[in-house]
Amino acid sequence: MRRSTVEKLLRKGWSREEISETTESLRKGRFSDKSKTFVYGQAVLFWMGFFVILIGNLLIGIVLVPFLFVMNRLIFDLIILILGFCFGMLTCVVFRDLEHLEKKHRMLLLFVVPMIALVNLLFVYLVAKRLNELFAIGALRENPFIMIFLYVASFLAPYVYWLVFRKGR
Description:
By secondary structure, the protein is mainly alpha-helical. The chain is about 80% helix and about 0% strand.
């Protein structure tokens, strides 16, 4: 059981013996589940959440294309930071309570999701650049890597913070 959960139960008046008995009972129940529904359910939640995050990143990229042309760069960068941070928080909230996650799952989330976001935003920039050439708008950012760096860094910030400073390791 997580340290934070144990501390909450102690504050509520549980004894350490009650907590250890409950933890052992839950652990035995998890291992006696012959149908593996708990582990299977956790795996389904992981992969569903993973694909929702990927689709969300794609949608964010699609929505950002028109704003590349009409917004001030500073405001656009601020919007990128806010979107990345909010979506990073959503990712962190979705995945932090899954007990099934092993180190390999966390590393997958830490590297694959930002890489896909990076490729997605690069694709968005290339589409916007092509639209700029077609319609001669002329307001496109010259360096897409600033936009990509801001999004990926702000996306990763909540998850990295949680990995480094999480309670109840």
